[in-house]
């Protein structure tokens, strides 16, 4: 398998046509067809399927497309890094992050660096949490910023933070009467929430079930920034993570704490036994400083407790309010004692 094969496959995937892919690549149609057939034979997978006159990716083809793009991007980055080293400009900085942190915290953190302190090229790639872990573990990113829990084998958790999820609603909404919004106030309201049923949305849903709160119509998205925009434009309400809520300020969107502790955990990961260069360590410090500046009541936890802390959020989200408050207060006391 050669890079030319991957580029041919991606051209077909993007255009949905052997003919258009051939024109895009300045190759003959039979040549493109043969490349795809050889690639499928080598992989033992049917990458494409025909739907009417259009060619679509098979389920295996969709998965392979993501890997093909990653490989080509990595090779392209390798050439860029080699040119930078030859020019005496050193290594590029490669960061993998989930969307909330990449949008809210990393840009202002990078803005604090002098231009000459950064390499000639910086990559800040946004991924789902499990892909952040994969990128860091494979060495395609030097550092990862992600929500928790995370698949941790082969990774070291350098920093671990927690803060409670918050309410987001339009300016002038009836929720404005509350300094601390009761979870019960979401009953019957159009609610913007997350798509993933096993992470953020799972914890919010369990907290609502425990308090017998039934929201009205639901809009689901997979990016917190989109949730905030939907609140802004549609007059809906939402429960969002504190990183996005306090790090991305939108006009006419109000952020308030809620009376039920639904903790949001996030942290910084690096490949185990791979020392950080000073620039990367400085970025971690800068992101932490930005988080402490923006997020009220941000808690800094012991990174060695990452697995246990993320497990505890499940029991906290299901506990009665008094039990949640006691658990939260207990952890805050522990946090202050461990700093």
Number of helices: 13
- Major sheet details: 6 strands, mixed
C-alpha geometry: globular
Order of secondary-structure elements: HHHEEHEHHEHEEEEHEHEHEEHEHH
The CATH C-level name of the domain at 3-74 is Mainly Alpha
CATH architecture field of the domain at 3-74: Orthogonal Bundle
Radius of gyration, whole Å: 23 Å
The total of beta strands comes to 13
Briefly note the structural class of the backbone. alpha/beta
Content of β-strand:
15-25%
What helical percentage do the residues reach?
Answer: 40-55%
According to CATH, the homologous superfamily of the domain at 3-74 is Winged helix-like DNA-binding domain superfamily/Winged helix DNA-binding domain
Give average pLDDT, whole number.
85
Poorly predicted ranges (pLDDT <50, ≥5 residues)?
Answer: 314-339
Strand order of the largest sheet: 4-3-5-12-6-13
N-to-C terminal Cα separation, in Å?
52 Å
CATH topology (level 3) name of the domain at 3-74: Arc Repressor Mutant, subunit A
What does this protein look like?
Helix 1 crosses helix 2 and helix 1 crosses helix 4. The protein has 339 residues and is an alpha/beta fold. It is globular, with a radius of gyration of 23 Å. The chain starts with a helix and ends with a helix. It has a domain of 72 residues: Orthogonal Bundle (Arc Repressor Mutant, subunit A). Helix content is 47%, strand content 20%. The strands form three sheets. Strands 4-3-5-12-6-13 form a six-stranded mixed beta sheet, with helices on both faces. It has a five-stranded mixed beta sheet with strand order 9-8-10-7-11, with helices on both faces. The protein is built from 13 helices and 13 strands.
